[in-house]
Every structure is written in C-alpha cells, then in structure tokens.
Amino acid sequence: MAQKLVQLIYIHGFRGDDTTFQSFPIDLQQYLAARIPPELNICIKTSLYPTYKSVKPISHATKNFLEWLTTQPPGPVILLGHSMGGLLAAEAATHISNNPNGYRPHRIVAMIAFDTPYLGMHPHVVITGIASLFADDGKDKKTESEMNEHPDVQIVDSEVTDGWETFRKNIPGRTSSSSLSLFSAHSSSSSPSRSPSPSLIDHTRSFFNSHADDPLVRWARKHSDEPFAASKRWLVEHFQFGSCMFDPPELKARYTALVKWNSGLWVNYYTQTVPRVQEDGHVEEADNDVALLQTGMAETPSTTSPSTSVPELGPRTASETKAAKKDDEKRKKKLKKQREKEAKKGKVARHFVVLPTGLGQILGGGEKWENVLIEGVKDEVGAHCGLFIRGQNLDYDGLVDRVSRKIVGWCYTL
C-alpha cells in the first residue's frame, strides 16, 4: 500500500529573509522520519515557501499562496508560520476554499505558529519589535538552502512569490488551470480582502512623522526607493500587510475564525524571556491585561453587577451615550492604572506577543498557546528572533521534540 504524503510547508514572516528558520526544517524532518510509527504508513516531506514582498493586503499574499498550493502533490498539508507568517497561515487554513461548505478541511489540515501576534504585538515592543523584523546586522549568514540540504526538503523557487503571475503560466500540465480557476472563484466571491481604514493610514503617517528618530522610521527612510513622506501609495502598499497587526477588528475576526476552525489542529508557540526573579503569575497576567487594553483587543469589564443594574427603557439619548462613553473611558483608565501598578510589583517574564489570558480569555483558544522559554537572549525581541538559533534558544532540541510530538499526534487523526 502506497504511503500517504504529509507535507510540512514553512511560511516566513513580515519582511522575513532566507535565514529565518535556520536549520529547523531539516532538523524536524530528520527527527520525524526516525519517529513516525510504521502503522501510520506516512511519508513526511518539507517545503520552504519563499520569502515574499510584504506589500499590499495580507489577503493578496494568501491568495497567491493558496493558488501555488494547488500546484503541489495531493495530500494533507501542515503549515508552519513564523511571526506574521502565522497570520498568513491562519488566513489560508480558514479560507473557504479549504473548508468547502463548512466541512472538515480538505487540504490544509493543521497549523503550527511560532510567536505569531494573533492578538497583536505587546505595546512595549512595537517600535523596537518592528525594527527587528526589518533588521539586517550585516554579518554573513548561512541561508536556509545552505542549512537544509536534504532530499525531502524542498526550497521553493523564489519566482513563486516574486513573479507568481508569470510563474503560474509555466506550470507543468500536472495541475489543471480549472483548479486555479476554482480557487479564484472562491477567493473573489467569498473572501473579501481586508484593507486598512483611512483612519489607520492617517494614524500610521502621523506616527512616522512624530517618531522621526525611532529605529523603524530611520530604517524605512533609509531603505525606501522613494522619499518616505512623498508617496502615499508607497506607505499604503508597504504597510497594508504589516499594519494588520494594529487593526483590532481585523485581528479579532482572523483569530475568531481560527478558534472556530473545524480542524481544531493548531498551536501557537510563543516566546518568553526568563524572569530575573521568581515569577508571579498574577503580575504577568496584569502586564498582559495592560497590553490587551492598549491594543484594543479587550473591553473594560463593567463594575456594575447584573443584580444591581437598571434595565434600559429605550434607546439612549445622545447625552446618555456620551456620558456612558465617558464612564467607560474612566473605567478603562482606572483599570489600566491598576494593572500597571500590579505589573510593576515584580519582574515578569516578557513576551513579544499579546496573550489570550486575563481579560483576553473571552477570545478563546487559550489552550492552544504554549510558551517557549528563550534563555540566551537579553529581551523579548531577541527571544522572538532567536527561536530557531541554538546559541540563543538553549532548549532548541526540546523545541524540535515538542513540535515533532505534536505532528505525530495529529497524524493519527488524518
């Protein structure tokens, strides 16, 4: 009986480069090959989807990725996305073309995210955090293709992302054009693309004007082909993808779809620094609550108990609405102050992303988030970037083992 092919496909993050995953793909491939139970009759193969220009809405990158996926050999697919690559992976996994009529996913069956900001980046790392995603320290680094030479590890042609429209025309006849057309029909009719609102664009431009000396702004001005402030189009295109991290409604919609996804086979391994003193769980939760409030991912809980509340007799007047809004802002500021005070009581373990804990529990999916302690770094930005680097993630082999066990467990359900 022929073996069932299970494909692992890696997706880079925002402005990711070909050093992101280091040797993790080949390490996991070899680790799995030695541990897949014979009774599963499964063959694992790995592909590294090429880096892509993080421009235009994320839905554009998702569309191209899903079209490319139709050209690959049949069989279940498990996506592995780092940072914002996990956002793209989530959109692809929950896309209607992968879940026809709401039934069990027929192609992308599981997803592994690595430090993906499903609820946004923690506010205290936004500037340095984004700058780190752009950073290039100038040192010679081995590329993923150099570190992952293996017959079962495929480095996908960069033209797939750099020139997909041209590349697809030269695809061998194995994949019919009808399958691509079918996907396109699903994409255009059922998955409206999300674009940042004008207010978000204006806010972004205002932010860059008022933070001229921040690392991200300096990087953008240094590397843009056009004067940064001279072209609204450049700003919109380059930040339509990245700005999705700062749009609470879009983040909530994507995350809600993931939590409700019929497969249910997903996990987000988030990085965490090691606290210098004994960790206090309450303090850590308070710190995350502040982040949830600041990013707009959580509402301020009402201080009025259900038993004492007075039912509304009709629609609120304009003055009542204004007063209620003012009261809500007061509660929000009071709670934020309280949480900040609690957070300052102790030195907490820092994380790059906002978590679904405390006030965020209402969003669901908390059991799918697993932390990875990164001991060989100075801060949470270093932890985010050092997840796949042995000298920084001192339990790198432990991560390979954890991910391997997760995949093997899922394979029993395929």
TrEMBL record:
Q: From the UniProt entry, list the residue stretches annotated as the region Disordered.
A: 174-202, 298-344
- Which Pfam families does the UniProt entry name for this protein? Thioesterase
Query: Which organism was this protein described from?
Result: Armillaria ostoyae
User: Which part of the chain is the Thioesterase domain?
Assistant: 69-117
Low complexity compositional bias, start-end: 176-200, 300-309
Designated name of the protein: Thioesterase domain-containing protein
| SUPFAM superfamilies from the UniProt entry | alpha/beta-Hydrolases
